[in-house]
Fold each of these.
Amino acid sequence: MRYEFVVRDAVSEDAAAELPELSSCSFPTGGTSLFGSVRDESDVLTLLARLTHLGLVVVAVRPLPD
């Protein structure tokens, strides 16, 4: 199962280093897509908590096709 987390702003190198299981893609208009594999809903909730703890504002979460 794969998920995408879209955050409002750019993700710093330090924040990205705290999320080694996620890949990222910055949008030219601002914001960043973080995406990667999760095992279950618990992983999704844990990642949301970690993103928030890093000061990132999550604007969208969605499952991705495998």
Note: The domain at 2-64 is CATH 3.30.70 (Alpha-Beta Plaits).
Amino acid sequence: MHVFADASGGNVGLAISQSLILNGMLQHGMRLTAEVVNQMTSVERVLEYTKIVKERDLETHPGKYFVFSSLLTRWT
């Protein structure tokens, strides 16, 4: 007993091609959704960075050999 005994080859081909097109559209929609989520995450990060409290300025400069002396004290 065949359920689709009256289905022609053209109708079967049309059903297959339409299902592949629908699958491609769903994949594209998911890709766009993921891209929007990524962009919104970037926007949230930028908004958080704008709310960071600014550090106060140094009252005195560390000096000419600050980095070098710190390296020397680190290794000795």
Note: The chain has two helices and no strands.
Amino acid sequence: MSNKLTNLQRVLNYLPTDKNKAVSTIDLTLNCYVADPRRAIAYLRKYGHNILDYWKKTESGKKYKVYYLGD
């Protein structure tokens, strides 16, 4: 049996529980080696995980979404 984690396991393990440490899709792609982290998050939500999100803004005003695990 392989010790490799699946994409979903890597994403779930990487998501913080602290809203102030929420991570972006770029963070998930670079650190979890997942090509489409939004799909992974959608699957995890479908399987019952409480993954929350909110929008952040860069200094230049561009918006992006960040994710974290809720209670």
Note: The longest helix spans residues 37-46.
